[in-house]
Amino acid sequence: MINAIQTRGLTKFYGNRAVVRSLDLAIPTGCVYGFLGRNGAGKSTTIKMLTGMVHPDQGIAEVLGENVETQSASLRTRVAFIAEGHPLYGGMTIDQLEHFSRPFFPRWNRELFDRIIDHFELLRKQKVRRFSNGQRAQVSLAIALAPDPELLILDDPTLGLDTVVRRDFLESMIQIIQREGRTILFSSHNLGDVERVADRIGVMVDGVLRVDCPTDRFKATVRLVIVEFAATPPPMIEMPGLVSGLTNRNRWELVIVGYGESHSELLGKLKPTAIDVVELNLEDAFIAYTRGRRRLFANDSAVAPEPVLN
Amino acid sequence: MFRVLFLKELREIWWIGVPVLLVLLYGVSLEIEFGARPDGEGYGFLRYTELDRYHPAPLIGGTFARLILLWGGMFSGVLGLWQTFRETQSRTWHFLLYRPVNRNVLLWAKVLAASALFAVVVLLPAVGVMLWAATPFAHASPFRWSLTAPVWYALAACPAAYFAALFAGLRRSHLAGTRWWPLLGSVCAFGLLPNMVPNVFAIWVWALLLIWISLLIAAVRDELCAADFS
Predict the structure, then answer these.
(1) Which of A243, A202, A238, A195 is closest to A223 using CA atoms?
(2) How many domains would you assign to chain A?
(3) If residue A7 lies in a helix (H) or strand (E), which one and from where to where?
């Protein structure tokens, strides 16, 4: 399958700090890809590199088969981008924004634009600055989708939107664009949104892509393991896939990637009174995963959690 | 495409020209009124030196040229800053830069819109006064085209302020406010030059101005086309 987005060794430094480190990302055509990570993890910088706003220091990024460094104007007619905060010209009305945007795009679908504006019940003669955050997001979506893009890249599109607007926004986006087998890459802090719409997720931790797999696989891989002891638990032990651990009275609460027989055997040797393995929802799995080993070993923060790939 | 970009820029900056145009039209009226009078009263609050009292003829004494240099320069600087800081402040760079068009086109749409406004607000009043001064029998004093040299210099120096302001607005924050240095340099060098050199019509003055503006244009292009917009 042809990848809509492909990066190899993509790296970006701000000063001496690598904000994105050797990123190898492959997003298949037709995929809805949720890009996750804590603040400063490198999601936005990656998206800005993919859209040509920021130049990579090392590595290659290709969007629809074209190197982003030589990104042509014609590529931008095929790839829609909604930047964080839905920046639009506040002094323009929706009609003026359409009038401004339309000449750039040979495939501008006026009917689709009108349908989206009508669907969201937006007032065409009202200046954009008078719209709420949610309404601005809806206008941004209409402008992004009207050129009939093959790929849609969104940087935290639901930030600052209330629950109803957020859901409506995402569902509209999916309905309109994905039904024709197009690709969506969106970053988000809202795990519920990602869980609902993304086929596949990527999790950035400190500039490194630590997770790149189908959403269900990530949820299935990360487990909370509660180990009960009769008395004070022993000191925490090392084990494969352990990403975080907490000692709470007479029990351990461990987050383990790829929990299996070997873990059961290892924990069984400690003679616990009970071992409970709990499935996590995406949000809990994400929090446990990205918080990593910092809570487990105070001096061991450089150790990254076990990667979950494919 | 260029048309909508040009109109968008014009829509955002036209109002800045209104107060400047009013001030300059007032300046024009004073120049015509006092420049035409043999007793040579001064310019009121717009008078910069007492010399005007003794140089009643139009354009002599340099008051009108200084008026153009001061207000035209300020206007140009404000235009450059507004066209860039406004995009930064409203976070619209990403929207604008992602339009499927070469970034040079975006730059020249900004420059041409500012130039068009400058032509109406500053150039027309200045040329109007010069033409009036050159019209036979319009005033009771002699006229030579060389008298207009300081006004032409003032008009030519304004782009230095504009491009330096564009550069300051585009450049990311750097140590010790270096983004402001070209603007400061433009104001100091070309704003004060008429007071320091006996003949602003000298070739080296114009060559220096041309080189400086070319450097600024190159720096602005480089900043817009090659810099990160994070």
Answers:
(1) A243
(2) 2
(3) strand A3-14
Which tokens go with B158?
A: 């304004």
Please indicate whether, in this complex, the C-beta atoms of B91 and A99 are within 8 angstroms of each other.
no
Domain that holds residue A275: 218-291
**ipTM metric:** 0.81
Q: Do B226 and A55 touch (CB under 8 A)?
A: yes
Specify whether A160 is located in the same domain as A189: yes
Q: Is residue A304 part of a domain?
A: no
Residue A70 shares a structural domain with residue A167: yes
pLDDT tens digits along A114-173: 988 988 888 999 999 999 888 898 899 899 989 989 999 999 888 777 788 788 788 777
Q: Are residues A110 and A137 in the same domain?
A: yes
Measured distance CA(B155)–CA(B149) in Å, rounded: 10
Count chain A–chain B contacts defined by CB atoms under 8 A.
64
pTM of the model: 0.82
What is the end-to-end Cα distance of chain B in Å, rounded? 25
Residues of A in contact with B11 (CB under 8 A): 91
Spatial separation of the C-alpha atoms in residues A224 and A141, rounded to whole Å: 38
Burial bucket for residue A286 (CB in 10 Å: 0-12, 13-18, 19+) = buried
The residues, ordered by sequence, that sit 6+ positions from A43 with a Cβ below 8 Å of its Cβ are A35, A36, A37, A155, A156, A187, A204
pLDDT, tens only, B84-105: 999 988 889 999 999 999 899 9
What amino acid is encoded at B93 in this protein? W
CA-nearest of A192, A157, A161 to A173 is A157
- A142 and A281 in a single domain? The answer is no
Q: Where are the alpha helices (DSSP H) in chain A?
A: 43-50, 73-78, 94-101, 110-119, 133-145, 163-173, 191-197, 215-221, 261-268, 282-291
Evaluated on CA atoms B21, B22, B27, B29, the torsion sign reads positive
Rounded Cα distance, A275 and A227, in Å? 5
Three-state DSSP class for residue A149: coil
